[in-house]
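> example.struct
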C-alpha cells in the first residue's frame, strides 16, 4: 500500500486530467471513492469501435458483422432505446438547464460504426504510407521520475512507417470517436488533451530507450454520422522537448498538490460534472 492519498501505487492520464479540470472532483472520485459511473451509449460505442480498430491494426482485416452485433447486443442489454432510458436522459439534461439531444436509435450507431471502420484501411494507407504494425493496447506501467509512484496507461496503437532514407519512423496513435465535424481547433490545441500522447511518448521512449525524435504522435478521429469517405481524420500532435517537459511537470504538480491536500472547486468545470448540485458539491 502506498502513502499516496488515493491508496494506489500509480496514476493515469485520465486521473491527471480530472485533477487539472477540477481538483475537488478528483478528490471525490479518487480519494473519497464516490462512484458515480453510469453506462452510456457513447462509452459502449467507443469501446466497441476501439476493439474494431485494434482488430484491424493487428490483422488488416475488418469484422463488420461482429462489430454490428456487439453494438446491438450492448443496446439491448442496456436498454438504450427504451422509453424509460430516453425519458431519463431528457430529464437529466433539463435539470441541468441543457437542451436534450435528439435520440439516435441503434441502427444509426451501427451505420456510423460501419462507415468509420470501412473507411479505416484506405485512411491508414493514405495517412501512414507503408505502415507496419508494432503493437496495440500496449500497457505502460513505468516509474515516475523522482517519485515512488508509477504511471499507468494503455497505448491504443503503435505503428512504424518508412522514411525516405531507408529508416523507420514510429507513430503512437490514439483512437477517438468524435462528432461528425470532428474536433474544433481549440480542442486540437488544448494542452490538456495533447498531454495524453505526450505522456505516452515520454514513458514509451524511456522504456525502450528510443530517440524521441523518431517517434511521432497523433489522434485518429472516427466521426459519427459523417459521410462515407469522410469519417477518419488524423490530428497530429507535436511532442518536442518543451511539450514533453510540460507533460512531466503536469504530473509532478498533480502529485505534489494531492499530497499537500490542496483541493479546489473549479466552477468553470461544473456544467457536465456528475457531482453538480449533489450533497458532495452543493
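> example.seq
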Amino acid at each position: 500500500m502506498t502513502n499516496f492519498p488515493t491508496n494506489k501505487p500509480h496514476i493515469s492520464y485520465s486521473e491527471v486530467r480530472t485533477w487539472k479540470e477540477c481538483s475537488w472532483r478528483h478528490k471525490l472520485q479518487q480519494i473519497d471513492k464516490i462512484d458515480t459511473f453510469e453506462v452510456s451509449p457513447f462509452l459502449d460505442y467507443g469501446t466497441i469501435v476501439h476493439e474494431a480498430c485494434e482488430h484491424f491494426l493487428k490483422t488488416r482485416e475488418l469484422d463488420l458483422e461482429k462489430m454490428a452485433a456487439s453494438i446491438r447486443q450492448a443496446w439491448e442489454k442496456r436498454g438504450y432505446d427504451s422509453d424509460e432510458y430516453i425519458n431519463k436522459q431528457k430529464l437529466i439534461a433539463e435539470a441541468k438547464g441543457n437542451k436534450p439531444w435528439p435520440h439516435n436509435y441503434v441502427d444509426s450507431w451501427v451505420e456510423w460504426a460501419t462507415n468509420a471502420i470501412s473507411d479505416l484501411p484506405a485512411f491508414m494507407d493514405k495517412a501512414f504510407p507503408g505502415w507496419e504494425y508494432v503493437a496495440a493496447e500496449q500497457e505502460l506501467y513505468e516509474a515516475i521520475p523522482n517519485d515512488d509512484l508509477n504511471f499507468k496507461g494503455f497505448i491504443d496503437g503503435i505503428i512504424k512507417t518508412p522514411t525516405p532514407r531507408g529508416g523507420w519512423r514510429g507513430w503512437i496513435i490514439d483512437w477517438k470517436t468524435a462528432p461528425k465535424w470532428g474536433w474544433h481547433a481549440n480542442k486540437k490545441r488544448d494542452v490538456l488533451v495533447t498531454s495524453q500522447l505526450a505522456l505516452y511518448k515520454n514513458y514509451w521512449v524511456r522504456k525502450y530507450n528510443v530517440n524521441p525524435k523518431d517517434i511521432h504522435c497523433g489522434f485518429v478521429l472516427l466521426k459519427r454520422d459523417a459521410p462515407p469517405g469522410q469519417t477518419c481524420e488524423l490530428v497530429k500532435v507535436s511532442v518536442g522537448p518543451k511539450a514533453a517537459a510540460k507533460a512531466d511537470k503536469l504530473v509532478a504538480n498533480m502529485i505534489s498538490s494531492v499530497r499537500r491536500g490542496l483541493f479546489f472547486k473549479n466552477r468553470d468545470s461544473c456544467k457536465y460534472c456528475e457531482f453538480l448540485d449533489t450533497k458532495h458539491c452543493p
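> remarks
The mean pLDDT is 95.
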